[in-house]
Specification:
single chain, 158 residues, mainly alpha, Arc Repressor Mutant, subunit A, 3-stranded antiparallel sheet
C-alpha cells in the first residue's frame, strides 16, 4: 500500500528517529532523486542544540501527522472508490501548487500505484479516470492531468 508521495524537502524517517524505532516503511523513487543522509545521533545533537532546528522538526512532524490523518480519513471515510480517486487527484493538484484556469499536474503513478494509494483496484482506477474524462471533469495527455471542473471533482470527493 502506498502511504504517501514524498515531496522535495520532506524528512523521511523522522518519527522513527525521534521514537528510537526502526523505520516501518520503504521508499522508492518515481523520478531521479537526490537524498541527503544524516546519521541519527548527528541529527538528534543538531535538534538539541538549535531552537530553530527543534521548531522545524516539530513542524515537519506535525505535517507528517496531518498527512497520515488525511490519508486515513480518505481511506476510512470516503464512501466510494469514486470519492477516494477524486480525493487523490485533488491532493495531487494541491501539492503541485497550481492556480488559475489551467490546473494541470504530472501524474507519475501507474494505475496500479494510484489504486494502492486510494485503496481500490487498478481496474477501478482505469474505469473512473476514463469516466472523469468522458464527463469533462479532467483531461489527460500522457502523464499530464488537467482538472477542468474542480468544483465537480470536489463534489465527487465529498
Amino acid at each position: 500500500m502506498i502511504l504517501k508521495i514524498a515531496q522535495p524537502g520532506d524528512l523521511l524517517g523522522l518519527s522513527a528517529i525521534l521514537n528510537e524505532l526502526p523505520y516501518e516503511v520503504t521508499a522508492q523513487t518515481l523520478v531521479q532523486s537526490a537524498f541527503k543522509y544524516v546519521a541519527r545521533q548527528l541529527f538528534l545533537d543538531f535538534v538539541h542544540s538549535s531552537v530553530r532546528a527543534g521548531y522545524a522538526t516539530a513542524l515537519a512532524l506535525a505535517r507528517e501527522h496531518h498527512e497520515v490523518f488525511l490519508g486515513a480519513r480518505r481511506l476510512a471515510l470516503s464512501p466510494s472508490a469514486t470519492a477516494r480517486i477524486a480525493h487523490v487527484l485533488i491532493e495531487f493538484l494541491h501539492s503541485a501548487g497550481v492556480e488559475g484556469p489551467a490546473q494541470s499536474f504530472s501524474l507519475m503513478l501507474t494505475h496500479a500505484e494510484l489504486a494502492s494509494l486510494a485503496g481500490t483496484s487498478r481496474e477501478t482506477v482505469t474505469r473512473l479516470l476514463n469516466q472523469f474524462e468522458r464527463e469533462g471533469i479532467i483531461a489527460r495527455n500522457d502523464s499530464m492531468v488537467t482538472v477542468v471542473q474542480l468544483a465537480q471533482l470536489e463534489r465527487l470527493a465529498g
